[in-house]
Design brief:
- The protein is α+β, with helices and mostly antiparallel strands.
- The protein has one domain (3-171).
- The protein is 17% helix and 31% strand.
- The chain is built from 2 helices and 12 strands; from the N terminus they run ββαβββββββαβββ.
- The strands form 4 sheets. The protein has a 5-stranded antiparallel beta sheet with strand order 4-3-1-2-10, with helices on one face.
- A hairpin with a 2-residue loop joins strand 8 (121-122) and strand 9.
- The chain is globular.
- The N and C termini lie far apart (50 Å).
Length: 186
């Protein structure tokens, strides 16, 4: 079956600056329409668990250039359902979810932004309530049985961290000419 790149685009009205962000993954299915409905299931997992009411899903898209009519992007306007309290944390605060096709196989790490607030975090850890919601998100992602890696290996195992993760936003993650990571010999 073809492997489609799925992209869920969100907008968080509480963030300053980079309010638009996306969650990118792959789904495998026989047609573009069914792959899009699987991506819609992934979006539902986000909106019904961790996304606060300030977050809006703006579009769902799937794309496979190897398939005739293999791109389908439909605008959305669905909002999150979690009622968040407290001041919003900067957008680089994220959670970590790791998925794999089977135990012992390569882990694929995702850093979804969940609209974290000060009341969702205790020190460097997620509160028990937020950790439970992230666990529900992880289970929701696995419930969409076509979410896979780029080679079509369907994810069957998942774990999530109870620590707040840091993930830089937007263009700042890209490498630029003349800039090196780490130690550069003289």
């Amino acid at each position: 079956m073809p492997v489609y790149r799925a992209k869920l685009t969100f907008n968080d009205s509480q963030l300053l600056g980079d309010q638009d962000y996306s969650f990118n993954t792959y789904v495998t299915n026989a047609s573009t329409a069914t792959a899009w409905s699987d991506a819609e299931g992934l979006a539902s997992a986000f909106l019904e668990t961790v996304m606060p009411t300030t977050v809006t899903l703006t579009s769902i898209g799937v794309s496979n250039p190897d398939v005739v009519n293999g791109t389908l992007i439909i605008p959305q306007s669905s909002g999150g359902t979690r009622v968040a309290t407290g001041d919003a944390l900067p957008g680089w605060n994220a959670v970590r979810i790791q998925l794999s096709a089977a135990l012992g196989q390569r882990l694929h790490t995702f850093f979804p932004r969940c609209g974290l607030t000060e009341n969702d975090v205790e020190g460097q850890l997620l509160t028990d309530t937020m950790d439970t919601l992230v666990g529900a998100l992880t289970a929701g992602l696995l419930a969409v049985e076509s979410m896979c890696d780029k080679d079509g290996q369907i994810f069957g195992h998942a774990s999530n961290s109870n620590r707040v993760q840091m993930r830089q936003m937007g263009w700042r993650r890209r490498t630029r000419p003349g800039f090196k990571r780490g130690w550069v010999p003289v």
